Amino acid sequence: MQPGQRVLAVCTGNICRSPFAEAFLARQAQLRLLVGSAGTHALDGHPATQQAIRVALEWGIDLSGHRARLLTADLALAADHLIALTPVHARVAESLAPAASGVAIHELDVADPYGLGLEDYRACFEQIERNLEALL
User: Fold this and answer.
1) Catalytic residue numbers, as ranges
2) CATH number at 6-135
3) Is residue 7 within 8 Å of residue 32, measured between CB atoms?
4) So where are the chain's domains?
5) What stretch of H or E contains 94?
6) CA dihedral sign of residues 50, 106, 127, 8
7) Among 33, 48, 117, 131, which has the minimal tally of Cβ within 10 Å of its Cβ?
C-alpha cells in the first residue's frame, strides 16, 4: 500500500470488525492512507457495538462516533485496496468491483464476534491487527 491510497475494510454489519480495521489502519500515520469501512449487510447509521467500543479502547481506539454504512458498488470501486474480513466478504466485493476495475482485494478470515463476549472481541481484534500488520 502506498501513501494516499484509498483502503476500505469490509465485514457484515460494519459495527465490529471493519470499524476496528479502519481505525487501526488510520493510526498508521506514516502510511497516510485514506481509510474507510462498510458492511455487506450494514444498516446505515447504526453505531458500533458496545463490546467493540469497549475493547477497541484497550488499543487506544475510540469507536464511539462510528456509524455503519452499506457497501455499494460506488464505495468498492472508489477504493484502491479492499480488505475483506472473510472469504464471503471478498466474493461480495469481487461482484461489486471486478478484477478489471483495478481494486486490489485482500481476503482475510476473521470470525465475527457479534453477540459474543469481550474475550471474543479481544481475540478478533488481535487477529485483525496481526493480519493488517502482515499486509502492510
Assistant:
1) 11, 17, 112
2) 3.40.50.2300
3) no
4) 6-135
5) helix 87-96
6) negative
7) 117
